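We examine the record.

___
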Amino acid sequence: MNRVLRHPLLWTAIVLGILPWLLPGANPFAGRAGFIDLGTTIAIFALFAMGFNLLFGHVGDLSFGHAMFFTLGAYATALLTKGFNVTIGSANLVWAGADSLAGSMVLSLGLVAAIAFLLARLIVPRSSGIYFSMITLAFAQVIYFVTYKFDAFTGGEDGLQAITRPSLPGFPAGFLTQSWHFYYFAAIIIFVALAIIWWVIESPFGSVCHAIRENEQRAEFLGYDVRKYRVNAFFISALFPAIAGCLWTYYQQSITPDAGSIEYSGRVVMMSLLGGIQTFFGPMLGSFIYWQLQNDVSQLTKYWEAVIGAVFVVFVLIAPRGIWGAVEDVEHHGLRNALRRVFSP
């Protein structure tokens, strides 16, 4: 019984269920829907950061371009929902759009999965370390400029607007137009995705990934095909930002090229480091702190990014494993030993 009560997925479900109430000053019963919107943003970016951390925190490969999967999922969902009629050379590409999850979200995830698989096979076997980070950044920039310049498909700088949320089988038309309904629709999808991440981390595959992170050469000596595991981890980690991108499109009902910018990639790096890499809850906590800080500090000063940057630097210096990593250190080693580990030279 105690094991069930301490299970991370139980607490993940509880947090997602009451997240809008956890935000300071929240009072959903008074009709303050802004907290629902903030809660939706936090939950979507928590999934984005968890997907990134699956590669960075559990394998050790730092990607500076995971926003490319976020924006690919977002644009694919937007195009398949909204439809398009584009002529390229002698070819006329037409899609009437789809008002269903099967016709938009599932197809867009399939498309991103195919691209992620190709990129994993292309990038991972040929790079590691800082070269891996730079190559992922380069590919992300290519996709960013494609979304920015190829306006026949993407709408260019203005992006794609007026994207309708899909209908759910068994529910009235327009059910997801209500903020509360969409929050819980997104929360259920996010919880299922996080449960898959938990299963991956705790599986034998996850254990080998941890061994690669700690000592790649030793893992190879033990007989593991390190390259194959890194390719598979890259592919799996790309799917969750794509799901987050799909939800982001439906939530905002629009998408612009900024979603694929280096700023978005940097945000999830910051969230993971702030909350705690190599932990399950860390990226979720990082997303919560990042967006809550932005919401509060931006009301006080237009230089809110500088304040968040200063907070980030302080936490990285005193808690290299992030906030949740520090909590785990205190739990495992006691407060005195944890403080000694932080301040020892």
Remarks:
- The two ends are 42 Å apart (CA to CA).
- The chain has a mean pLDDT of 87.
- The CA atoms of residues 293 and 308 lie 7 Å apart.
- The longest helix spans residues 226-252.
